[in-house]
Structures are given as C-alpha cells and as structure tokens.
Amino acid sequence: MPNRYICEIITSSQLTETAFAIAVKCDEIAAEVRLGQFVHIKCGEERLLRRPISICRAEGDTMEFIFEVKGDGTRWLSKRKQGDMLDILGPLGSGFALPESGNIIAVGGGAGVPPLLFVAQSAGNRVTALLGFRDDGKVMLTREFESACDAVRVITDNKGYVTDLLEEALNNGGRGAVIACGPRVMLKAVAEICKRHKIPCQVSLEERMGCGVGACLVCACATRIDGKDHMSRVCKDGPVFNAEEVVW
Predict the structure, then answer these.
(1) Disulfide check for 114: which of 29, 56, 158, 167 has CB 3.0–4.6 Å away?
(2) What is the band of 237 on the pLDDT scale with cuts at 50, 70, 90?
C-alpha cells in the first residue's frame, strides 16, 4: 500500500477562473516523487473516493500540485487555505523517463500542462514547451515555463491546436523525445504525429480512478506490449506509457 500523510497547506492560490495551486509541506513525498507521478487526495469526509492530481513541483520539504475544478471534490479542495490539513496518498504511479541527452519537446493541453513544468525544471535548458489551452482565460504558468525552457509556444483553440505546433516543430527539423500530457484526443494525435516522424514519445494518460493503487480496475486501458494485448491500470502501470503501447 502507498504511504499516507497528513500534510499542512503552505500556500493556496487561484491561477485562473477554474485552476488552483496548492503547496503542502511533506518532505517524504518531495524526497521520493518522480516526474509524472501523482497524489491521491481525500476531498472532504463525505466523499469516499479520493481525487488523483499530478504533482507539479517538489523541492526540499514542499510538494505543489495544480488542478482544475471539475466537480464537488475539486471544488472542496479549491476552498482549502493556508494552515489547513490534507489527507494525501503518494507518490503514486509510474513517471517519465527523461533521455540522458538530446532535446525534449513537452506537449501539454489544459490541465495536462502543470506536470510538464516539473519536467522542464528538471531537464535543464533543453526543453521546448508547446502549451495548448481552450482560451486566453485558461492560460497559466507561462512565466514559469519561460524561465525553465529553451523555448515556449502557447496556442489557444481559436487559433489552432497544440498538435499544430508539434507538427510544425518536427517539420522544421526539431528532433528529440516528446513528452505529452493532456486530454486523450490530444495525446492520440501527438502519438500519431510522433509515429509518423519516428520520434520516441511518452504520454501521461488521464482517466477516472477509484482506489488509485491498482486494485479496483476502474482506470483500466487497452495496451499492446511486446506484441501482446493487455488491460493496463493507469494508476499503477501508468499514468505514463510509451505512446506506441497504448491502443488508442
């Protein structure tokens, strides 16, 4: 079973109309977390199921996560303030495997953008970040990405899609591993583009979860590994998979 911690909120802030950032003091999680992992947070005593949220940053004894309000649980979480305590399981799941050398293209969409900041800050100035949002009011973390990345491009749906930026970058000779996090339809398109350009790609899948530890199979997804079909658990076998392993 994963470790459970009662963590104190250090800071709580609102980034956009629907996105919130919370940092908690938890040196155990901060010391163990790998890029792309997530935590499972209890959102009020009346809710049985926890909410899975990707880790955005970890440093020293502090761990930060960013989330969008999508229901009662995350709405409850958005109202927590400095000094409040959170019941957290983690860190959970698999993480990204950063290449030891070469450029990295980080492709993020919406709520999938925050965990890629952890990647950018950990990989040094060899990351190009391509960030897509629904509209200007959803845009977040651009300054943080600009301080960590070699280049950053942002696009909103009224101007195009983040996959357009990826196609353009690869057509213009951009090479390197691709790391992506966002809606499934975006990830499928990213995987297809990378396959066509013969670029290695890792994707972090978003799925509804029950237990978060691989027991309930609510988050099962179809994969093909070493030529064999599997039903993989996003919470335990993922959330990070090699793109070519996912049956889209």
Answers:
(1) 56
(2) very high
Long-range contacts of 151-157 (CB under 8 A, 24+ apart): 152/128, 153/128, 153/129, 155/130, 155/131, 156/132, 157/132, 157/133
Supply the CATH classification number for the domain 104-245: 3.40.50.80
Contacts of 31 (CB under 8 A, 6+ apart): none
List all residues 6 or more positions away from 91 whose beta carbon is below 8 Å from its beta carbon: 2, 29, 32, 33, 34, 37, 38, 39, 55
Residues in the chain: 248
Q: Domain 4-92 falls in which CATH fold?
A: Elongation Factor Tu (Ef-tu); domain 3 (2.40.30)
Compute the distance between CA of residue 33 and CA of residue 35 in angstroms, rounded to an integer: 7
Helix (H) or strand (E) holding 169: helix 162-171
Beta strands 201-204; 177-181: pairing state: parallel
Contact 58, 30 (CB under 8 A): yes
* Residue 100 confidence (pLDDT) above 90: no
Nearby residues of 198 by Cβ (< 8 Å), 6 or more positions away: none
Question: What's the half-sphere exposure (Cβ side, CA atoms, 13 Å) at 103?
Answer: 13
Is the pLDDT at 1 greater than 80, yes or no?
no
Residue 15 backbone dihedrals phi, psi, to 5 degrees: -95, -40
Using alpha carbons only, give the angle 159, 139, 29 rounded to the nearest 5 degrees: 135
Residue pLDDT, tens place only, 102-145: 899 999 999 999 999 999 999 988 999 999 999 999 999 999 99
Question: Which secondary-structure segment (H or E) carries 241?
Answer: strand 240-242
pLDDT attached to residue 243: 97
pTM for this model (two decimals): 0.94
